[in-house]
Write a structure and sequence with these properties.
By secondary structure, this protein is an alpha/beta fold. The protein has 12 helices and 12 strands. About 30% of the residues lie in helices and about 15% in strands.
């Protein structure tokens, strides 16, 4: 008889109608697996608890955090934590590895959507899109001549973090005849050359780029990677864009740089505190574009993310190694070796 495994989906993945934000089609990945039964967690929770870990063999998480305390009890049956997205800073990966729990993410669907939002921000800032929208709506039509946009030909795009997303952005940006540079200690110079970009150090990028885009993962080494000293190296006519994670940037330092006119403007899809405080000064600045950590969310993006993430659960519970494992060291854990076949 086939062993049945219980899978839980965090309820924060549902929209206001109670429907999965990624659409029902992706659920066929679970429905078609004979060894899996699934349901949504009963309530929206800020983090998983030991009770969740004792009830489920795998959990698909969206916003909810997965702390060490959730897997500390001896009755923990959890085998897989699958993240709906590429970032996994909300999961205590070290604790999961120690407990013998596989952590997966969904990097493959993300490069194009996130690179697209970064490019959207670049175009909107260069053309002063949001300001000109406001001029039109508030009867300030005649101020057009005082708000000239910035042409992109020959300008420089600098990307901090040249992983999948960063390289996709660089590849897409070639269409606009931008000069392309990237700062990433882990990327190969030749590999960057394939997308027409040049590898530089962080200081050179900040001092050179007309548009600085943060596209790296958040981990202990990148927390507050960009602060007051880094922002001070940027030109006063340059723009700053963050499509990665809020805590990579020292937000008060960014606010201060904008208020002092040390940079021309910014666009952020992420904040240090989410949901963002309505009193955050960034929300009142005309030269700043803000979106609620969701600009890349499209039907295509979410369907592909969910299909990939749910498939990782189905594969793992069938004893197969998932495609994207965040903590590969866990594969040598005795608990994992007892059920993972390949």
């Amino acid at each position: 008889m086939t062993q049945r495994f219980r899978v839980g989906l965090t309820r924060d993945i549902l929209d206001s109608r109670g429907e999965p934000a990624f659409g029902r089609k992706a659920l066929s990945v679970l429905d078609g697996a004979a060894h899996v039964e699934w349901d949504y967690l009963p309530d929206v929770v800020p983090h998983l608890t030991p009770e969740h870990a004792a009830q489920y063999d795998a959990v698909y998480v969206n916003i909810a955090r997965v702390p060490a305390a959730a897997v500390a009890r001896p009755d923990c049956r959890l085998r897989v934590v699958a993240r709906h997205g590429v970032g996994y800073d909300s999961v205590d990966v070290a604790a999961m590895t120690e407990a013998g729990i596989v952590v997966t993410n969904t990097p493959s669907p993300m490069p194009r959507p996130v690179a697209t939002i970064a490019l959207t921000f670049i175009l909107a800032l260069a053309g002063k899109l949001m300001l000109k929208d406001k001029l039109t709506r508030t009867g300030r039509w005649n101020e057009r001549m005082d708000n000239m946009g910035l042409g992109l030909t020959g300008r420089t795009l600098g990307v901090i973090g040249a992983g999948r997303i960063g390289k996709e952005l660089l590849r897409m940006a070639r269409t606009f005849d931008l000069k392309l540079i990237a700062a990433d200690p882990n990327v190969d110079t030749v590999e960057l050359g394939y997308v027409g970009a040049r590898k530089v150090d962080m200081d050179t990028l900040l001092a050179t780029a007309d548009f600085v885009v943060v596209a790296c993962l958040l981990d202990p080494s990148t927390r507050h990677l960009v602060g007051a000293p880094q922002l001070a190296k940027m030109r006063p006519d340059a723009y700053f864009i963050n499509v990665a994670r809020g805590p990579i940037v020292d937000e008060p330092a960014l606010i201060a740089a904008l208020q002092a006119g040390k940079i021309a403007g910014a666009a952020v899809d992420v904040f240090e505190q989410e949901p963002v405080d309505p009193a955050n000064p960034l929300l009142a600045m005309e030269n700043v574009i803000v979106t609620p950590h969701s600009l890349c969310w499209t039907d295509e993006c979410f369907h592909n993310m969910a299909s990939t993430g749910l498939a990782s659960i189905v594969d793992a519970l069938a004893g197969k190694r998932p495609q994207f494992v965040v903590n590969p060291a866990v594969l040598d854990h005795p608990r994992v070796r007892a059920w993972l076949k390949a």
